[in-house]
Specification:
Layout: H1 4-71, H2 76-101, H3 108-122
């Protein structure tokens, strides 16, 4: 029986090393996915902004000209149109920021697996404020 202890310890260390490697691989994959999602969201927000600017260049001049004839002032029309466009730009910017904030760089699945592994290795849930005991 005492000669089995080194073998058991060796097996435990080997399995622990395998588990650590697998969890590190999961961490890298999860981080890569999260960074890719944030980058894609950012690219889409920038592309949308470019297309909005291009469209607004052409439409704004036509709108200002039309509004100038309606209000009878070539000075007031650009102020009205500019104010409306500023409100729209602020709304789009806030929406884009909200969309990017929904994705987190935190590796949540890896953290959950590490917590579960710690529970298994210590024989029960840790009492560090993350888990509530029944």
């Amino acid at each position: 029986m005492p000669e089995d202890i080194p073998k058991l310890v060796g097996d435990a260390l080997h399995k622990s090393a395998d588990l650590a490697q697998k969890e590190f691989a999961l961490f890298r994959t999860e981080m890569s996915d999260n960074v890719r999602a944030i980058a894609m969201g950012l690219v889409m927000v920038i592309a949308a902004a470019v297309f909005v600017i291009l469209a607004l260049i052409w439409l704004t001049q036509a709108l200002v000209d039309w509004l100038a004839t309606m209000v009878g002032s070539h000075a007031l029309a650009p102020l009205i149109v500019g104010g409306v466009l500023a409100v729209i730009a602020i709304g789009l910017g806030l929406y884009g920021r909200s969309a990017m904030s929904r994705t987190s760089l935190a590796p949540t699945r890896t953290v959950q697996l590490l917590e579960r592994d710690a529970e298994v290795l210590t024989g029960g849930p840790r009492d560090d404020g993350h888990h509530q005991r029944a």
